[in-house]
Amino acid sequence: MSITSLNSNKVKLMIEENQFDLIIDLRTEDNYEKGHLQGAINIPINQIPDKMDFLSYYKDKKILLYCGIGSQSKSACKVLALNGFEYLYSLYKGIKDYKYSLEY
């Protein structure tokens, strides 16, 4: 199990190189629609427990989680780690600190 915090520069580079198998935006659907990372799916943090069946496919794959300011993604990473997920990444300081263009 490993949880790694990444800055926006590293996240951008890893997205460009297709290094993540899954990118999860933990914010509300409204915030997701206002702009999200390239390739991200929206699973609000309160829905993570309900999505464990879907997420289980990614237990041994690289997952990036992010939220607004970075605190919820750390919490979600810990929950996934306790459920056997291996490669978890969190966007340091969340999307508010992401300096690059977003998808809409």
From TrEMBL:
SMART domains: RHOD
Alphabetized InterPro entries for the sequence: GlpE_sulfurtransferase (IPR050229), Rhodanese-like_dom (IPR001763), Rhodanese-like_dom_sf (IPR036873)
Pfam families per record: Rhodanese (PF00581)
Protein keywords: Transferase
Gene Ontology MF terms in the entry: transferase activity
CDD domains documented for this protein: RHOD
Ranges of residues in domain Rhodanese: 17-104
Protein name: Rhodanese-related sulfurtransferase
Organism of this sequence: Romboutsia lituseburensis DSM 797
